[in-house]
């Protein structure tokens, strides 16, 4: 049985540059752990596993990164997008647009309501983001898990 490939999209640079946090890596690792535990027919495609160190001498160009990540999205079955600070991430906006243009279902989640350290719900003002997502989970503490359960129950069963 083949596995459903879930691409993990979301802002990275904003957190590193502005919040000095590993949150972009942490939530993706949580997804990988959840899938390893509960998603026997699911596989996470974590872009942080490819180019997490932009200063690495192995990377030849931004074009290389862009082409690889768009290729990975073109091969995925579902795009899971963290909507926090999406409007601060050109890459994430492009990933969502690309997935939508290729009829790849997009499931969004947003957990940081009223959180002054992270929370940025400006995605709510962007109809193109809202229209691109098949579903958006917004529970303050369980949105990520809720989105994974939804993907498992409705797309991967």
From TrEMBL:
| Organism expressing this protein natively | Eubacterium plexicaudatum ASF492
Protein name, per record: Nucleoside 2-deoxyribosyltransferase
Please give the superkingdom of this protein's source.
Bacteria
Looking up Gene3D superfamilies in the UniProt record yields: 3.40.50.450
């Amino acid at each position: 049985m083949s596995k459903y490939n879930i691409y993990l999209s979301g802002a990275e640079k904003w957190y590193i540059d502005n919040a000095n946090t590993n949150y972009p890596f942490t939530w993706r690792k949580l997804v990988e752990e959840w899938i390893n535990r509960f998603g026997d027919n699911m596989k996470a495609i974590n872009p942080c596993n490819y180019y997490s160190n932009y200063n690495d001498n192995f990377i030849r160009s931004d074009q290389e990164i862009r082409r690889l990540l768009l290729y990975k999205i073109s091969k995925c079955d579902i795009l899971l997008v963290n909507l926090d600070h999406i409007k601060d991430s050109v890459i994430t906006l492009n990933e969502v647009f690309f997935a939508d243009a290729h009829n790849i279902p997009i499931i969004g989640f947003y957990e940081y309501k009223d959180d002054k350290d992270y929370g940025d719900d400006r995605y709510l003002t962007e109809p193109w983001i809202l229209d691109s997502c098949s579903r958006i989970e917004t529970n303050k503490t369980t949105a990520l898990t809720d989105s994974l359960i939804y993907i498992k129950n409705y797309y991967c069963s």
